[in-house]
Design a protein that fits this description.
There is one protein chain. The protein has one domain: MetI-like fold, CATH 1.10.3720. The protein is about 75% helix and about 0% strand. The protein contains 13 helices and no strands. About 25% of the residues are buried. GO terms for molecular function: transmembrane transporter activity. It is found in: Cell membrane. It is a multi-pass membrane protein. Keywords: Amino-acid transport, Cell membrane, Membrane, Transmembrane, Transmembrane helix, Transport.
């Protein structure tokens, strides 16, 4: 009677989740390095420099009218933000009102302007003088841009502000009312200050979006003195058949938005610590 001895196959040692994640991470680094090397070896750097980073065109862009375009972009954004913030606060309070018609009006406004592309609103405002003869908007062209962009911003800010108001503990409102404070005073002195403290990071994001949306001002057909960064860069690129001015204008947008993005991250991190 013979007995068969079978050798057990060595079991393959499984990688720990940490080791597996480490290998995946290194594989991703390697893939990224390969892509960068291939791009560096195959790109026509002379053509890229000539099309996007011509030294003489950079100098021309910086000295021709860039400061005025940058100033206009900031003014357009600031004015639209103020109008959007005021209207957004009113709409948020109307949305939370116990009066049904106020809620309906606010909801209709918010859904309407959130559903429309911003460029459509700009085009509509550019045609207003045709529909209403003799119509004059103060501080034109700034007033036109502030109102058009502010209407769109108000719809988004209203929802942000409403969320901030609802995040304030109701116990504080009840305590204020129990001390005899009127409802309006409690909202103004207790609710809104805390709500705006909560929603400061999202509102800063709205500023960033407004900076980028200001590039749609070109549809209003403004004169050169009213150009913002994108319109200025596009016109200079077209007249010189080179994309360098548009690239420089794009970097100017980054100069504005990157510090704001950093500020948002810092504020969000601070809020997390306070919780």
């Amino acid at each position: 009677m013979s007995t068969t001895i079978t050798e057990e196959a060595p079991t393959k040692k499984k990688l720990s989740p940490r080791k597996r994640a480490q290998r995946i991470r290194w594989a991703q680094y390697a893939l990224l390095a390969i892509v960068l090397v291939v791009f560096a070896l195959t790109a026509n750097w002379e053509q890229i420099q000539s099309a996007f980073f011509r030294t003489d065109m950079i100098k021309l862009t910086l000295t021709e009218g860039l400061p005025n375009a940058l100033k206009n972009t900031i003014i357009y954004t600031a004015g639209a933000f103020v109008i959007g913030l005021i209207l957004g606060t009113i709409l948020a309070l109307m949305r939370l009102s116990s009066v049904a018609p106020y809620r309906w009006i606010a909801s209709t406004w918010i859904e309407f302007f959130r559903g429309l592309p911003a460029i459509v609103v700009f085009i509509a405002f550019s045609l207003l003088p045709l529909a209403f003869e003799g119509l004059l908007i103060p501080f034109d062209p700034y007033g036109t841009v502030w109102v058009a962009l502010g209407l769109v911003a108000s719809a988004y800010m209203a929802e942000t502000i409403r969320a901030g108001i609802q995040a304030v503990p109701k116990g504080q409102i009840e305590a204020a009312r129990s001390l005899g404070m009127p409802s309006g005073a409690a909202t103004r002195k207790i609710v809104l200050p805390q709500a705006f403290r909560i929603i400061t990071p999202p509102l800063t994001n709205e500023v960033i979006l407004l900076v980028k949306d200001s590039s749609l001002v070109y549809v209003l057909g403004l004169s050169a003195s009213g150009y913002e960064l994108t319109k200025y860069g596009r016109d200079l690129s077209s007249s010189n058949v080179n994309l360098t001015p548009l690239v420089v204008a794009g970097f100017c947008y980054l100069i504005i938005t990157l510090p704001l993005s950093y500020l948002v991250r810092r504020m969000e991190a601070r809020q997390k610590k306070e919780r």
